[in-house]
Design brief:
Layout lengths: L9 H13 L30 H22 L9 E6 H6 L6 E8 L4 E6 L1 H11 L18 H22 L6 E8 L13 E11 L2 E11 H6 L16 H15 L5 E3 L8 H6 L13 E6 L2 E11 L2 E9 L8
Antiparallel strand pairs: 1-5, 2-3, 2-4, 3-6, 5-6, 7-8, 8-9, 9-10
Amino acid sequence: MADGEKLLTDEEMQAIEDVVASGDLEGDGYNVGAAAESFDLTSKDNRPSFDTTVLEQINERFHRHLRIGLLRELKYSADVAMGTVEVMNYGDYIRNLPSPVSLNLTNMSPLKGESVCFIDPQVVFSCVDNWFGGTPRPLAAVSEAREFSATEEVVMKKVRIVVYAALLEAWAPALRVQCEFVRAETNPLLANIAADNDLVIINRFKVGNGTDALGAIDIVHPFDSINLVRGSLTKVVAAKRTENRLEREWSQKLANTLDEVPFEAVVNAGEIPISLAKLNTLKVGDVISLQDMGRSELCVNGLPIYEVEMGSRGDHAAVKIVASTIAGHTNE
């Protein structure tokens, strides 16, 4: 169609207008039944799925250092579950927190904004019980108006120090961070690290035994703070180590040397129950008959290795190897 040429003539356009005006148009239009969903381009919920691979590696290292730190600082051999990563609205997270609450606002440079270290009050109570020689256990009923005691404040400080030290070690291979304590809040409404509709990343570590978990320790970051440094995070991949020439030669010499180490193999020919009276009558030249010449075991350094059958070859006594007694070894 040339530029400026009309798709329909004036007569065709007039005919269409007449039919529409008269109401004689029959049938349905095209694509009127197509399904459609609303999509808000400005909504942060429409972000692409977040790759948590690096955070999971960080959580794995944090999990290890957290357990070591609790044992060192509080003599608490805590059962800590491996951390999980979850993305949710900050408002939804705050509303589900128990009371009283321990929220430790933290600057983790170079991450943008403030992060939160949440320590479940039941974890604090169990640490206090353990510190004074009791059994770590949760409190059955805790009033929402209850405040932490001076002793519990000291324990929370120790746990916070352990968490910061573990974070430094956990993040070091991926990104060097510094943890600076800003303030502690017991009211979740005062810990405004993000708006209610903003996304946050929760790294949760449950303390306790499975379904009987005492509580959790959460490390919460604003989504934007992690998203901005996502390209800088380094995935730690264990390098495949190759042996050099000297190591290969040393390994071969060690294997050859071990092959020359002598061992003493022992086979019990049989056992005969005998009374003390008969034992006292034995003298040089007497013959003791072995009634059962069945299978026995060949032992090396007291460890049974093979099942054998007793017999002879020529003028010598001999054993025939029948089967291996070592778990996982085949008899072929």
